[in-house]
Design goal:
By secondary structure, the protein is α/β, with parallel strands linked by helices. It has helices spanning 40-53, 72-88, 100-110, 115-143; strands at residues 2-8, 12-18, 25-32, 55-62, 91-96. It has one domain (2-143): 2-Layer Sandwich (Nucleotidyltransferase, domain 5), CATH 3.30.420.140. The protein is built from 4 helices and 5 strands. A hairpin with a 3-residue loop joins strand 1 and strand 2.
């Protein structure tokens, strides 16, 4: 079994995939779309990646506000979750993603990735963080 992690942005979606043992998350790609609400091609690419990597579950970043409230970005994620579930037939789990993009950017800075190149990778790294947190939570539940 593999799980896909997604970091849904305004114009991009970072994609990560777990290993079959559900221990680690690896970045796969960043899907870019020309307009925010044009999701058909994005969904088609996600479907192709699901098939290619034999994914059985999806973890979608859920951008809650820092005060734990739900804003427009979180509502957009809820709508995207519904579209993903209808289109793929897979379970989609919303996962709190607060500060993952900030953390991803910090990792890229520490790795000395040039500013102009960071945009290419920040969404993938954020997707890795989202998925890795979920995988770690599964491992912790098994230990309890």
């Amino acid at each position: 079994m593999k799980i896909m992690g997604l970091d849904l942005g305004t114009k991009t979606v970072g994609v990560a995939i777990s290993d079959p043992l559900l221990i680690t998350a690896q970045p796969i790609e960043t899907i870019t779309r020309k307009e925010e609400n044009k999701l058909r091609q994005t969904l088609a690419r996600i479907e192709a990646l699901i098939e290619e990597h034999e994914v059985e579950k999806i973890v979608l970043g859920y951008p809650k506000n820092m005060n734990d409230s739900i804003g427009p970005r979180a509502l957009f994620s809820e709508e995207f979750k519904d579209k993903l579930e209808r289109r793929t037939g897979l379970e989609v789990i919303l996962w709190d993603e607060r500060l993952t993009t900030v953390a991803a950017d910090e990792v890229l800075i520490e790795s000395k990735v040039r500013r102009e190149n960071r945009k290419k990778y920040v969404d993938q790294i954020a997707a890795v963080f989202i998925l890795q947190e979920y995988l770690d939570s599964i491992a912790n539940k098994k230990e309890d």
